[in-house]
Design a protein that fits this description.
By secondary structure, this protein is an alpha+beta fold. The protein has one domain: 3-Layer(aba) Sandwich (Glutaredoxin), CATH 3.40.30. Helices cover 52% and strands 14% of the residues. The strands form 2 sheets. It has a 4-stranded mixed beta sheet with strand order 2-1-5-6. Strand 1, helix 1 and strand 2 form a beta-alpha-beta unit. Helix 1 packs across helix 9, helix 5 packs across helix 6 and helix 6 packs antiparallel against helix 7. It is globular and about 50 Å long. The two termini are 22 Å apart.
């Protein structure tokens, strides 16, 4: 019989390593489908909470925030594209891509969680941004994405036009910060085991098997 596994996936929709980590995790769960029954909850984290509505050129943003040169940024993008390809995710970002505010996307994800469509919307948001070059702060795009995964478009538009779920999302963000999450993705298993970064598939497989073994009172060699 498969064991229950709760997974809190703390991430941002504009974080490339979050996409790498998610698809690595999903592949790991497919490998372990006869061993664990996982329930994934996406938790909000904003890499750039003060980003304005127009966004910022990605290369310019990375240079300002991390001091990276254009050449370093290009090499990093190549690494990310390769890691994405390894787990079946396509990155088409380049030096002309933009970084955007993602708070409304997190509000929509919270609602999607209540409707049982959080994973589907998360995947749609990642693809729209990283593969298609979309804008995750554009309410029209967000509403279309919600509709594309079976959510009610008018309800999505009403949420985006209001402050609905804003307070709860901010509260959740603070809770994870207070728990020590300072980088994403941070993947928390059963509320106590944390793995950070866009880890390879096998790393997730090994970690999950170790957690399941410990829960049964055994060990993994």
């Amino acid at each position: 019989m498969s064991a229950a596994l709760k997974i809190d996936f703390v991430s941002d929709v504009s974080c490339p390593w979050c996409a790498v980590g998610l698809y690595g995790l999903l592949r790991a769960l497919e490998i372990l489908r006869n061993e664990v029954q996982a329930e994934i909850h996406f938790q909000p984290f904003e890499l750039n909470p003060k980003m304005g509505p127009q966004g910022q050129n990605i290369a310019e943003h990375i240079q300002e925030k991390y001091g990276s040169t254009a050449e370093q940024s290009q090499k990093n993008r190549e690494v990310i594209r390769a890691r994405g390809a390894d787990v079946g995710f396509s990155f088409r970002t380049d030096g002309n891509s933009r970084i955007y505010n993602t708070f409304d996307a997190h509000r929509l994800l919270h609602w999607a969680g209540l409707e049982g469509a959080q994973l589907a919307l998360k995947e749609a948001l990642l693809k729209a941004y990283f593969t298609d070059g979309g804008n995750p702060s554009d309410p029209r795009q967000l509403a279309r994405l919600a509709e594309s995964v079976g959510l009610d478009r008018q309800r999505a538009e009403a949420i985006l036009a209001s402050d609905e779920f804003a307070a709860v999302v901010r509260e959740e963000e603070q809770q994870w910060l207070q728990r020590g999450v300072s980088s994403v993705p941070t993947v928390v298993f059963n509320g106590q085991y944390a793995v950070t970064g866009g880890q390879p598939v096998q790393t997730f497989v090994d970690v999950i098997r170790q957690i399941m073994s410990e829960a049964r009172g055994g060990t993994v060699n």
